[in-house]
Design brief:
Blueprint: E1 2-6, E2 10-16, E3 31-37, H1 39-49, E4 53-57, E5 59-62, H2 65-74, E6 82-87, E7 89-95, E8 101-106, H3 115-122, E9 130-134, H4 140-150, E10 154-157, H5 163-168, E11 176-180, H6 181-188, H7 193-203, E12 208-212, E13 218-221, E14 226-229, H8 242-255, H9 260-275, H10 287-293
Parallel strand pairs: 1-4, 1-9, 2-7, 5-6, 9-10, 10-11, 11-12
Antiparallel strand pairs: 2-3, 7-8, 12-13, 13-14
Helix pairs in contact: 1-2, 1-8, 3-4, 6-7, 8-9, 9-10
Length: 303
């Protein structure tokens, strides 16, 4: 199975701070680093490092050379990339003393993905493949509808959640939801994990849902099965790529035909390794590193 990721690419400006800046406050950063990032790029890097046959689709803009090199070095196929005259997207990220982050994103070339480009790329893929996307590029609603028409399974990570997404996106086209609690609450109005899962599967009963719960672990549910896995406790350095790493390793494991409990284990362990390192894409481990760490870290009880 080939995995096609229609996703964003950003240059991340990461500021280490003692605490997040408050309204009206000016603070001095302890350190500034530049990393390759964007949810799309991070997830493609994770997919490829986890061993999946990964194709990235998106728009390379001005100043994107390092992003392109990162994808190639990670083993991502670049056959269907587009080029835009816009500046490459970027993110301003604050990371506090506990490793938590907050992020401002400028879309740039990520917002230059057109319906014509989507059609051109999808013409090379079919129902035996899988498409992944997030909410950081333009025309994702069109992408979802075209995947539905072509019979290509669609995996959706609805991040960041926006009012426009909730009003316009054809969620009925989604085969697999990969969401956290904040996104689950925005989609359903529920706050308790069980209620979020119940509401999603009542509304879209054909879908499979993976709900990540931070330090409490993760729950998977479809119409017939429920599985869960605890989180691995490590010292957090930077949580920026935690969710993207989970997404990539879960889907790569699924594409290999592994069962859901093993997919959850691989993704949870990979995510723990990622948060123990600085940066977004640079923090994502390989499958070999995940296998080497297996059994050396004990997960918390499953939720």
């Amino acid at each position: 199975m080939r995995l096609l990721n229609f996703g964003s690419m950003n240059v991340d400006h990461v500021y280490q701070v003692e605490h997040f800046v408050r309204p009206g406050e000016t603070i001095s950063a302890l350190k500034l680093d530049y990393f390759c990032g964007g949810k799309g790029l991070n997830q493609s890097v994770a997919l490829a490092r986890a061993g999946a046959e990964t194709y990235h689709a998106g728009m390379l803009g001005k100043g994107s050379e390092e992003l392109e090199q990162m994808l190639v070095r990670s083993g991502v196929q670049m056959d269907y990339m587009g080029v835009s005259a816009e500046m490459t997207g970027h993110a301003v990220i604050q990371v506090d003393a506990s490793g938590q982050n907050n992020i401002i994103i400028y879309g740039g070339s990520n917002q230059a993905v057109t319906p014509a480009y989507i059609d051109s790329v999808l013409s090379h893929f079919g129902p035996e493949d899988m498409v992944l996307t997030q909410n950081e590029i333009s025309n994702i609603s069109y992408l979802a509808r075209r995947c539905g028409e072509l019979g290509i399974p669609l995996v959706f990570n609805p991040s960041p959640i926006t009012e426009g997404l909730l009003k316009e996106f054809p969620f009925e086209k989604v085969s697999i939801f990969l969401i956290n609690e904040v996104e689950g609450q925005a989609l359903t109005g529920e706050s308790e994990p069980g209620a979020i899962l119940d509401a999603l599967l009542t509304r879209w009963p054909h879908a499979r849902v993976v709900l990540t719960l931070g330090q409490r672990g993760v729950v998977y549910r479809d119409r017939e099965h429920t599985y869960s896995h605890g989180a691995y406790r490590v010292k957090a350095v930077d949580t920026t790529a935690a969710g993207d790493t989970f997404t990539g390793f879960f889907l790569a494991s699924l594409a290999r035909g592994e069962d859901i409990p093993r997919c959850l284990e691989n993704a949870s362990l990979a995510s723990a390794l990622a948060v123990s390192r600085p940066g977004a894409a640079p923090s994502i481990p390989t499958m070999a590193e995940v296998d080497a760490a297996r059994g050396t870290i004990t997960p918390s009880p499953a939720p």
